Amino acid sequence: MFESSVYSQRRNALRQRMGTSKGIVLLPGHLQSPINFAHNLYPFRQDATFSYFFGLNRPGLLGLIELESDVDTLFVEEESDPDAIIWQGQAPSWEHLALASGCQQIKPLRFAQTAVNKATRGERPLHFLAPYRCETTHLLSRLLQRTPEAIAGQVSRVLIHAVVALREVKADIELHEIESALKVTEQMHRLAMRLTRPGVFEREIVAHMRQILGREGLQEAYAPVFSNRGEILHNLTHGNCLASGDLVINDAGANSPLGYASDVTRTLPVGGRFLAHQRPLYDLLLEVQEHAIDMLCPGISYLDVHLGAALKLAEGMKALGFFNGCAEDIVASGAYALCFPHGLGHLLGLDVHDMESLGEHHVGYDAQVSRSPLFGLRNLRLAKVLKRHMTLTVEPGIYFIPALIQRWQAEKHHSGLINYQRFFDYQHAGGLRIEDVVVVEEHGARVLGPLIPKHPNDVENAMA
């Protein structure tokens, strides 16, 4: 954990952000989740917003923040089995939990109902975030005496906006955590580069990357994408045997000890060298990514950065024969999204897609920037104006998705702008993506973490 004063200051900052709002804020932590019976559990992961404001990484906690006072209360689930110490060891004392989180009060969880009832009788507003786990919905339903169906419709927008405003800008101690995660992520990616070769199964490489996580005592930030079918954007299967000439997308990242995420993608040529038809695409993609990073600065919208990257991509893909006409028209029409159908990146922090549980429209958009209905652009997770110390990913890609190519051709989408025969020639080429974690600084941006090879000669050397 950080120093207890960090969490006290964050809770006070939340009060200030919520302005004249009154009442209490309820922030439930997570419970343990069983795999198939009560004592066989998934690895525990705390709710990120609870972690941000209270810091405690243990199940069965509920935080209550009084908006009209400086009193913060931590409710703790009591152990009902006196023999639990045999199986789980001695739990931290309540005094330790209160000191570590900087809370003035700590009470048994059963008393949370009394606190909520008191607030309700006094007609004080109850502020909570939309739950994304059924057990959290059940807890809120019971405390607030509302149906589970009613909970999602009664979340506090003022609380959401306050949490987003605080969490989207990273403090130096948070950047340090992200960089510590990236140091382990570098080990994972360099090992994958050394081991990726013909005849190896994808699952073998994934197992070796997870061995590094196990050795460091860390969790993965998300299930890794390691696949020679990189055109399937969220391909979480690892059953393919790699063959010479394949391109493999390796999208993998570690969490830091305090739960901050990393997220890096590299594209690897299985034979150790990019083939003649692959190298121009890879060179172009790297140019697009570096162009996008150079555009980053406070005050620019990420929508404009995405469009700048798309224009650079369209120019290059036109030169390679995939598109016809004016690059500006290729972007404005959305034709470019045939090979780049997702957004340029997303915020990153305690969640790998930071705060996405609060609603992407709250996190990636604002009153000035709304979601486009256009294919490709509508998939942007982040579009709003950037601020200093926002931390985000920059991850352009080029994909050859056979079903999408066939569908668009049959429907005659952008037929004057797309050279469909050229795309069909590459329909088995898979996908390419390059991704780094970047922090927006006062006059530009900086790629976080140690250097993970991405220039083609460096990738080939790392794989030799």
In short:
The protein has two domains: 164 residues, Creatinase/prolidase N-terminal domain (Creatine Amidinohydrolase, Chain A, domain 1, 3-Layer(aba) Sandwich), CATH 3.40.350.10; 292 residues, Creatinase/methionine aminopeptidase superfamily (Creatine Amidinohydrolase, Alpha-Beta Complex), CATH 3.90.230.10. 38% of the residues lie in helices and 14% in strands. The strands form five sheets. A five-stranded mixed β-sheet has the order 6-5-4-1-7, with helices on both faces. Strands 8-9-10 form a three-stranded antiparallel β-sheet. Strands 11-14-15 form a three-stranded antiparallel β-sheet.
Describe the structure.
The protein has 464 residues and is an alpha+beta fold. It folds into two domains: 164 residues, Creatine Amidinohydrolase, Chain A, domain 1 (3-Layer(aba) Sandwich), CATH 3.40.350.10; 292 residues, Creatine Amidinohydrolase, CATH 3.90.230. Helix content is 38%, strand content 14%. The strands form five sheets. It has a five-stranded mixed sheet, sandwiched between helices. The chain has a three-stranded antiparallel sheet with strand order 8-9-10. Strand 14 and strand 15 form a beta hairpin. Helix 1 crosses helix 8 and helix 11 runs antiparallel to helix 12. The longest helix has 24 residues. The two termini are 40 Å apart. The mean pLDDT is 96.
Low-confidence stretches: none
- Quote the distance from N terminus to C terminus: 40 Å
CATH structural fold name of the largest domain = Creatine Amidinohydrolase
Instruction: Report the structural category.
Output: alpha+beta
Number of domains: 2
Radius of gyration over C-alpha positions, nearest whole angstrom: 24 Å
The counted number of beta strands is 15
Percent helix, as a range, is 25-40%
